[in-house]
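Honest question from a wet-lab person: if I give you the sequences of every part of a complex, can you actually get the arrangement of the whole thing, not just the pieces? Trying it with mine:
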Amino acid sequence: MQIKNATFLTSAAHESQLLTFDKPMIAVCGRSNAGKSTLINLLAGQKHLAKTSAAPGRTRLVNYFDFGEFVLADLPGYGYAAVSKQEKAAWGRILDKFFEKKQAIAHVFLLSDIRRDPSEDDVSMVTYLNYHIIPFTVLATKSDKLSRMKGKERVRAVANAYGLGADNVIAVSGLTGEGKDAVLQKIAAVCAL
Ligand SMILES: Nc1nc2c(ncn2[C@@H]2O[C@H](COP(=O)(O)OP(=O)(O)O)[C@@H](O)[C@H]2O)c(=O)[nH]1
Ligand SMILES: [Mg+2]
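Yes, you can. This is the full assembly:
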């Protein structure tokens, strides 16, 4: 699958602003700082389509991007310690509403730093996706931070921690582009369904 010209569509700050589209939607989720924006830029072949940040972001927006054959939804990151109970509740509500329209979601990519074991929030997310029977793939991000060997070992460890087979986890890097083709292949496959 070739991405020609990905563009930012709009942000939803409230559940009433969530959108549905007449093409497949792919959702990207994970804790803040996991590498969601970087992955979107990698797939788009653009440096600044999605804003990346070294400081964990506190955006509670769903950002929609038009990738031509599909729409990509960047979900608000979770696990940011410095948010209030109210903010956490608002995050939960917008996500519940987002995943409620599950027939509109072709696939979910759950991003998880290759060097880290899944957090409680990550495991809750996987439990949630499994419970709602929403198909997903884990992307082990920042693979450039590890040697090839260590990376393979960590993919197995991450898969194991999520209770998945190693082929449900793809190592990706925004720096080297590792995993880009595999992710695009997965997207092409789910869009063809
Ligand atoms: N080395 C490396 N750093 C990355 C990679 N992906 C993200 N980062 C860094 O991790 C931080 C958070 O990335 P970002 O994409 O903004 O994460 P988000 O909060 O999930 O959208 C930024 O400092 C990025 O430069 C990667 O593949 N390799
Ligand atoms: Mg981001």
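Two things worth pointing out. The pocket of magnesium ion (ligand 2) is lined by residues 36-37, 57 (CB under 6 Å). The chain has one domain: 7-192.
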